[in-house]
Amino acid sequence: MTSNFSHALDELSARYRALRKSARLALVITGALLLLSMIAFALKPAPMTDLAEGHHSRSADLYSLWDQGNVVILMRHVERCDHSTNPCLAQPDGITVKGQRVADRMGQALHQLGLTQADIYNSPLRRTEQTSSFVFNRAATAQDWLINCRGSMLDNVLKHKQDHHNLILVTHSECVSALEKSLNVPSPVSLDYGASLILSVNPDDHSTRVLGFIDARDWAKVVARRP
To answer: What are the domain boundaries of the chain?
Structure first.
């Protein structure tokens, strides 16, 4: 009986040691996973700056850069008719009535910002032509490279950017993505209809920097914060 008791006690002790070992291993694994998660979070690129939030537009020096003519705006066209259930403005390959209203409001804000030293281009497609017409109250110059933009977007932007003249390009989401890829943007943004990617170009060496983005509805807010 004593032998059986000792055997049971030894077995219980062995199980206890195994459980302690398993618990220590689980603790080590949990700690390692937590550390890896913290490292991954620390290394994750910060999201692109929303220039309409807080004081981001001032921190990015947007207004001074605009006054100096050192800004490039890549504006995605407003809501397209053939991808929406909203009423079309006219032709099905153009924009919607809702898109027109958005473009009108954007135009009011951008005219307050000042367009006298801005060169404006759009792609040849109807939805960008209409967007440009309602935002800027005039037809802009159509450029094929604003629709056929893969691999050449940055080169064409710099080719058309005149020193001390802002450049506004009414284009498409894939062209914005192509430019972000050329600039190795760590956290690319997927622009909604009418939203804009904002860049600065140094007139001395033509180095290009992403300042952030502005959603279509936020232009009035950004302009109102101008010093």
So the answer is: 1-44, 56-224
